[in-house]
Amino acid sequence: MTGTFQDQDDIRAAQEALARGHNPLVAGGVTRWEDEVGIGRIINRRIIELEPLPTPAQVLSDYQLDQASRKLVVSSREAIRDTLYGRDDRLLVIVGPCSIHDPKAALDYAQRLAGVQGELGKDLLIVMRVYFEKPRTTVGWKGLINDPDIDGSHHIQKGLLLARRILLDVLRAGLPAATEFLEPTSPQFISDAISWGAIGARNTESQVHRQLASGLSMPVGFKNATDGDVGVAVDSCFTSAQQHTFFGINHEGRASAVQTLGNPDCHLVLRGSSHGPNCDPESVRQAMERVRQEMPSNSAAAHGLIIDASHGNSGKDEVRQAQLVEQLAQRIGQGEPGITGLMMESFIEGGNQPAAPLDQLVYGRSITDRCISWPRTEQLLQNLAAAVRARRQLA
Ligand SMILES: O=C[C@H](O)[C@H](O)COP(=O)(O)O
Ligand SMILES: C=C(OP(=O)(O)O)C(=O)O
Q1: Which residue minimizes the CA distance to atom 2 of ligand 2?
Q2: Residue 10: what pLDDT?
Q3: How far is CA 242 from each of CA 196, 203, 215, 239, 353, rounded to the nearest angstrom?
Q4: Which CATH number belongs to the domain containing residue 319 in this structure?
Q5: Is 44 or 304 the better-scoring residue by pLDDT?
Q6: Quick one: 232 and 300 in the same domain?
Q7: What residue's CA is closest to ligand 2, atom 7?
Q8: Mean pLDDT of 366-374
């Protein structure tokens, strides 16, 4: 399909035509309701527009990682692996906004966090959450790639390029980046800049996402399901470690049969559930027992897991999230086994605000889940670093 609906009236007319059983045919840039023979189309009856995007090859060459950033991606992926397999005794801390919506605030946050990484880098391996794709429970803003202007205009091409520019900025600030992979083809545009990937609670049982993880170049954490099921995420670690062949796109954007090697660096992320938290010592012990039944003893997953202090573990309340991080720091300091890393949702300002175009927003405040403020985040990172030092003493 090459044409587009011309405006909102056109779209409304098409919807009315559909309701009457007619067919909005789009050809040569003009919307028509029925084809020449009057029987209507049998495909794309509910597609308003297919707008071609630039190819991954084009986007990657327009916005290239410089040599220092490439080195950072390689070395941080390796360092993350070392923490996951227990070869590095630092705590992996994945911290940053629930979602990125403002390039300026993202860079501001990255620079603050890079300062802390410089100070605490012997104890913490800090990776910034740079999340561009938001999975929604029902509907809502789907993130900067999908709707960069936060106004429902859905300029995905603009969003993709902006996301990539932000990633380049974060890397230049000296921080590795973590993200959730949601759309199966979007990794081709950004994954070279990512050091840790997540598959979220809403997709953890999805074959499409497990296949995707099997071909990703970085370690990937699978969240437990929103209902609290940990077993599906363990199944994901197992499945993604295998080879797969599936539908995807290549760097020229062409539909391709993708064959993967399998990703041995997948692991569990406990994020709580609609029934409450699942990160108390007994839940961690049970989750690890479950992992060890399915995964080989030398896998990343069998060594330890990550606790997401946000989401179901704190009811998305930033005050409870911060309290939980303090409790986790205590437990880590006392040498509790199994906790390889933590995830925190944090931004410059605490809390959140409704999504709206940038000029209507408070600077540095989340437009998705509530986040811990920057000053509180700094304190918590200090606590976590002290806990790692205490754990080291015990060892
Ligand atoms: O991390 C972000 C949110 O928890 C996730 O996108 C779901 O949000 P929603 O329940 O508000 O849609
Ligand atoms: C959406 C997220 O988490 P979850 O999949 O656990 O809800 C997230 O970490 O942004």
Answers
A1: 200
A2: 63
A3: 19, 18, 10, 6, 41
A4: 3.20.20.70
A5: 304
A6: yes
A7: 201
A8: 98
Residue with tokens 């997401």: 308
Interval 173-182 mean pLDDT: 98
Do residue 21 and residue 164 come from a single domain? Answer: no
Q: What residues does 223 pair with on adjacent strands?
A: 269
> Ligand 2, closest atom to CA 99?
10
**In this structure, what are the phi and psi dihedrals at residue 115, rounded to the nearest 5 degrees?**
-60, -45
Q: Domain range spanning residue 42?
A: 1-50
The pLDDT tens digits for 243-300 are 999 999 999 999 999 999 999 999 999 999 999 999 999 999 999 999 999 999 999 9
| CA dihedral of residues 245, 265, 303, 95 (deg, nearest 10) | -130
**Do 68 and 37 share a structural domain?**
no
Residue whose CA is closest, atom 10 of ligand 2? 98
pTM for the predicted model, two decimal places: 0.92
Closest CA to 82 of 215, 211, 174, 195: 195
Say whether pLDDT at 14 is over 70.
no
Closest ligand 1 atom, residue 134 Cα = 6
Number of compact structural domains in the chain: 2
144-155 per-position pLDDT tens digit: 999 999 999 999
- DSSP per-residue codes, 132-175: -----SSSS---TTT-TTSSS---HHHHHHHHHHHHHHHHHTT-
Count the helix, strand and coil residues of the chain and give each as a percent rounded to the nearest 5.
40, 20, 45
ipTM: 0.97
Q: What pLDDT shows up at residue 48? A: 87
In a shared domain, residues 136 and 279: yes
Q: Tell whether 151 and 296 lie within a shared domain.
A: yes
* Dist CA 234 CA 288 (whole Å): 10
Same domain, yes or no, for 21 and 92? Answer: no
Q: Please tell me if the CB atom of residue 274 comes closer than 6 angstroms to any atom of ligand 1.
A: no
| Shared-domain flag, residues 63 and 108 | yes
Handedness of CA 200, 203, 204, 207 (dihedral sign): negative
